[in-house]
UniProtKB/TrEMBL annotation, chain A:
Belongs to the FGGY kinase family. It comes from the Bacteria. Residues 7-248 form the Carbohydrate kinase FGGY N-terminal domain. InterPro entries: ATPase_NBD, Carb_kinase_FGGY, Carb_kinase_FGGY_CS, FGGY_C, FGGY_Carb_Kinase, FGGY_N. Residues 285-442 form the Carbohydrate kinase FGGY C-terminal domain. It comes from Thermogemmatispora aurantia. Keywords: Kinase, Transferase. One of its GO terms (molecular function) is kinase activity. This is Carbohydrate kinase. The keyword Kinase applies. One of its GO terms (biological process) is carbohydrate metabolic process.
Length: 530, 515
């Protein structure tokens, strides 16, 4: 009698950790494992990780999971991860150098080169996005300049989870969203865009075959089975970009479903049944065939809260700050903040944008400023929603997840600011759960995408309140106005800061010259004395 | 030893201090506080009776202290008064106070300002009194009482300013000293006499106003009754004295052309000595005040930024929890801890600016709805940048005042710094770099009381003139030179700072509606 396959395994390769889960077809998540990852920044702006370490943590996690569930009941394995990480493999399939992560900023110069080389409209029409530092082209140009010997030996390129799939199965593949985010891919024709490949100098042969998330790439190899306790031949699907898997795990299965992620950054994902990209957003395919995910990323969200705590409320807990801020009326009594502390990605694409606290009065205290920060992030989300509405995209349901969604105050502000109910979904190991479901769909363990909702832990729903909504509508108008008015000043401010740094450096140099002169003088005097 | 007594009637309390006439050395000092009332938001009132009791107490306590160091009351050759400007003390026929004094900080008389400006004509008003009608000034406050409390107003026989009321209690003589009278909006500042044209246009009886007297002449002598009350010898001469800012200038030797005073108290003041009553005519409304100085036939031009020390106090009170905690464990106060942290941030704060309009702004915007803010924040900024930006922002707002003053054709060779904020070497350096002038600190202590004492010395004949009094007693003890490379850098930051308010004005006004 054949064993009943009941489990789908999901592995998520994240910047800070590997998370692995076992999803049982009826009971949902039955096991979870986490192993830390080490981010390296050998130079400012660089972000690298060791792909071999990912593979180590994956194997450890698999062994750990299989202590809790029987290997012969595993129907399929799915891997998700950050995208587009860049792993360069040699002819024997070994990484030639540390993986370059999606947030690596080393190729700023090459980004400018690419910007100059392409027509922005055409680039958007083809790739569905704007030129940015995540694109593969500038990174490849950087490698050609700085590490030609690595490039010469590179036989294959792939992403974070593609690399794990390769190690599990011995089959090289690329999940389609790596291709999308590489900006070398024609998102309408769904094929490589040869002119951009040529422009970057990337041979087509370097790129493994592109797969949809649920496609089974291969089975677990005998060697891996030996090493991990998995059954040889267990199907492995192509997997998923982490944010797409997280969207699935939040229940975004229909056009108009939205997820707001209150993590370190502020992500917004919009589920669409239209294939068209949007100029204000990034574009990905959904794990669900036929759907796309229009998504945005605000550079600072939770990281702003953390900054605030460190700089303006040291020693104070989040709960205490929340309690204080809850006593401040909506609109923070006239304090208005802009959250652009890290510049901004979507929807304004302005790296020179800066943070602001405006409207300060003598009676405003820490709590007002803190509330203004929470409100600013929500205004940022509202800005994205406004653009979606203007583009005629319907909004059906709004979910919220990640760290910030645990704050009842923040979620109530979010509901009041966006003017719609906001439902919190528990985002624990969300990407791993999502990609486990993708694997389960690929292996036939599940029938329908919508059924993933059975496994989603729903939190409270926050309802917008009419009075606060009206007030926040005016606040949102001012939020937009504030940026427009100050935007012309930001580049000059940044430039002045650079000039000031130079002067400072010069002054310090003078000082050291002077002090060495002084000591030379003292030395001379001492010699003269006797 | 010949001594002089200076009395400064401030907003929080009164200070009495005794100085040696020969070199201005402080010998004794006492401070007694009194309450400030806010019957409604934006209103500010004090009881003249509280002032008087506190003054008597302060004088006695100061004399007692003096006696302990060998200075007898009989050594006091003269008494000078300095005081908060603009407040109105309304007296009836029996010279009794009719209602609490509406003081300078009170903002209720905006409608009366508009009415008065219409009655006289905006341009003509400035021709006549050198200043626009502002809610802070005395005349609109008088008009408010006439409009809202007619039965009280009907009993008013005399209007006095705060320190002039105290002089009346000390001497029994009613007078209004010229530098203080300049802040009523009823004095022809250029001529130094009441403007009958303005009084007529707004229908005020000139008889309500006592004679205008000079700052450095005797305006009365101590009565027997007060002698018994305070221990001062009867007959001791009391000088006209001066407005607090005028006395602050005298105490720091800012009594000749080329000198200016920067005062960083709660608000920030930039004041320059002038030999003519220049009026800022760059816009429809002058953005600086033109007042008579306590030096005869001289004036001073003054810009006021509302939030100077106030801004740093706000940081300390609401964001300075760690510093206030540390204060208890070290012998440093929170301000010192804050400014030490600010030293860790570079000039220009890595592109971060602060607008110090926490309480609206007077110079140069005259906008009660102006608001404060940090502009240009990045994740790389930390607490040190936030604090330094406040110090720089206040200095930029002082530069606004400074710029308008120098635009009147005044050549300033030295600026002297005073007030609590001037104690910080970092803040002084920032101000010197931003203003681009040498910033000096004098030996003056005890604030405007010292200047008032010097005026008393002139009145009593110990010095031939105010200039000579300063010559004898005021010395520069420390000087901060601007650093050329930073002057250039800050000039560029200042351009950015100046662009902020015009860009944000409508947002500020809208935010006021949102709170």
């Amino acid at each position: 009698m054949p064993t009943q396959k009941r489990y789908a395994l999901g592995l998520d390769v994240g910047t800070t950790a590997l998370k692995a889960v076992a999803l049982e077809r009826e009971r949902g998540l039955v096991a979870q494992v986490e192993r830390p990852h080490e981010l390296r920044s050998p130079q400012p702006g660089w972000a690298e990780e060791d792909a071999e370490q990912w593979w180590q943590t994956c194997q450890e996690a698999l062994r750990e999971l299989l202590r809790q569930i029987p290997a012969d009941e595993v129907a399929a394995i799915g891997v998700s991860g950050m995208v587009p990480a860049m792993v360069l493999l040699d002819s024997s399939g070994r990484p030639l150098r540390p993986a370059i992560l999606q947030n690596d900023a080393r190729s700023a110069l090459e980004v400018e080169e690419l910007q100059a080389a392409v027509n922005a409209d055409e680039f958007f029409q083809v790739t569905g996005g704007v030129v940015n530092q995540q694109n593969i082209d500038p990174r490849w140009r950087w490698l050609l300049k700085h590490e030609p010997q690595v490039v010469a030996r590179t036989v294959s390129l792939c992403g974070s989870y593609d690399f794990i799939v390769w190690r599990l199965t011995g089959q090289l593949s690329l999940e389609e969203n790596w291709a999308v985010e590489s900006a070398l891919y024609d998102v309408r024709r769904r094929q490589w865009h040869q002119p951009y490949l040529d422009q970057a100098g990337i041979a087509r042969s370097l790129l493994p075959p592109v797969h949809a998330p649920t496609e089974i790439v291969g089975g677990v190899s005998a060697a891996v089975a030996e090493a991990t306790g998995l059954q040889a031949g267990t199907p492995v699907v192509a997997g998923s970009a982490d944010h797409v898997a997280a969207a699935l795990a939040a229940g975004l299965t229909q056009q108009g479903d939205i997820l707001l992620k209150f993590g370190g950054a502020g992500d917004i994902l919009y589920c669409s049944d239209q294939p068209e990209p949007d100029p204000h957003f990034y574009f990905d395919y959904h794990d669900i065939p036929g759907l796309t995910l229009i998504n945005g990323c605000m550079a600072a969200s939770g990281s702003l809260v953390k900054w605030f705590m460190t700089q303006l409320a040291p020693g104070c807990s989040l709960a205490q700050l929340d309690e204080e801020a809850a006593a401040v009326p909506a609109g923070a009594d006239g304090v208005l903040a802009l959250p652009y502390f890290l510049g901004e990605k979507t929807p304004i694409f302005d790296p020179m944008a800066r943070g602001i606290f405006a409207g300060l009065m003598l009676h405003h205290r820490r709590a007002h400023l803190y509330r203004a920060v929470l409100e600013a992030v929500c205004y940022g989300f509202a800005h994205h929603l406004e653009l979606l509405r203007e583009a005629g995209r319907p909004i059906r349901r709004i979910c919220a997840a990640d760290g910030g969604s645990r704050s009842a105050l923040w979620m109530q502000i979010a509901a009041d600011v966006v003017g719609q109910p906001v439902t919190v979904v528990a985002g624990e190991a969300a990407s791993a759960l999502g990609v486990a479901y993708v694997a389960g769909m690929g292996a036939g363990l599940f029938d329908r995408w919508e059924e993933i909702t059975r496994f989603i832990a729903q939190g409270p729903t926050y309802w917008p309140r009419a009075e606060q909504m009206a007030l926040y509508q005016r606040g949102f108008f001012l939020y937009r106005d504030l940026y427009r008015r100050l935007q012309p000043l930001f580049p000059e401010l940044a430039q002045l800061a650079d000039v000031a740094r130079l002067i400072q450096a010069q002054a310090e140099e003078d000082l050291s010259v002077r002090s060495s002169l002084n000591s030379a003088q003292t030395e001379l005097n001492r010699e003269r004395k006797p | 030893m010949e001594a002089l007594l200076g009395i400064d009637l401030g907003t929080t309390g009164v200070k009495a201090a005794i100085f040696a006439a020969v070199d201005g050395r402080p010998l004794a000092s006492a401070f007694v506080d009194y309450p400030l009332f806010h019957p409604r938001p934006g209103w500010a009132e004090q009881n003249p009776a509280d002032w008087w009791q506190a003054t008597v107490k302060a004088i006695r306590s100061c004399l007692e202290q003096g006696a302990r160091v060998g200075v007898q009351p009989s050594a006091v050759r003269g008494i000078g008064l300095s005081g908060q400007m603009h407040g109105i003390v309304l007296l009836d026929e029996a010279a009794q106070v009719i209602r609490p004094c509406i003081i300078w900080a009170d903002q209720r008389s905006e409608p009366q300002c508009r009415w008065m400006t219409e009655q006289v004509g905006a341009a003509r008003l400035i021709e006549l009194v050198s200043n626009p009608a502002l809610p802070g000034f005395s005349a609109p406050k008088i008009l408010w009482v006439r409009e809202h409390e007619p039965e009280l107003f009907a009993r008013v026989r005399t209007v006095l300013l705060p320190k002039d009321y105290i002089r009346y209690r000390l001497t029994g003589t009613m007078a209004m000293e010229i530098s203080d009278a300049a802040g009523t909006c009823l004095l022809n500042v250029a001529e130094g006499s009441w403007s009958s044209a303005v009084l007529e246009a707004i229908g005020l009886d000139p008889a309500l106003l006592p004679p205008v007297v000079p700052a450095d002449a005797v305006a009365g002598t101590i009565t027997e009754e007060v002698a018994a009350l305070t221990g001062l010898p009867a007959g001791t001469p009391v000088a006209g004295g001066g407005a607090d800012n005028a006395c602050g200038a005298v105490g720091n030797g800012v009594v000749r052309p080329g000198l200016a005073l920067v005062s960083i108290g709660t608000s920030g003041v930039v004041l320059a000595h002038a030999e003519a009553p220049h009026v800022d005519r760059s816009g429809p409304t002058p953005r600086i005040h033109t007042f008579n100085h306590a030096v005869p036939r001289a004036w001073y031009l003054m810009g006021v930024t509302q939030g100077a020390g106030l801004s740093l106090r706000w940081v300390r009170d609401y964001l300075g929890l760690p510093e206030r905690a540390l204060e208890r464990w070290t012998d440093l106060d929170a301000y010192e801890l804050l400014t030490r942290e600010a030293e860790g941030a570079p000039p220009g704060c890595a592109g971060l600016l602060f607008l110090p309009y926490l309480q609206g702004e007077r110079t140069p915007h005259l906008d009660a709805y102006a608001r404060g803010g940090w502009i240009g924040l990045t994740a790389a900024h930390d607490r040190r940048h936030l604090i330094r930006a406040v110090l720089e922002g206040v200095a930029f707002s002082l530069k606004d005042c400074f710029t308008i003053i120098t635009a009147q054709g005044l050549q300033l060779e030295q600026v002297r710094a005073t007030g609590g904020g001037a104690k910080s070497p970092l803040w002084r350096q920032i101000i010197a770099d931003i203003l681009g002038v040498e910033l000096a600190v004098t030996n003056a202590s005890e604030g405007p009381a010292f200047g008032a004492a010097l005026l008393a010395g002139v009145a009593a004949g110990l010095y031939p003139s105010v200039e000579a009094a300063c010559e004898a007693t005021v010395r520069v003890v420390e000087s901060t030179a601007p650093r050329p490379e930073l002057v250039t850098l800050y000039a560029r930051f200042y351009e950015q700072y100046r662009a902020l308010y015009p860009a944000l004005r409508t947002v500020f006004h809208a935010l006021a509606g949102l709170s």
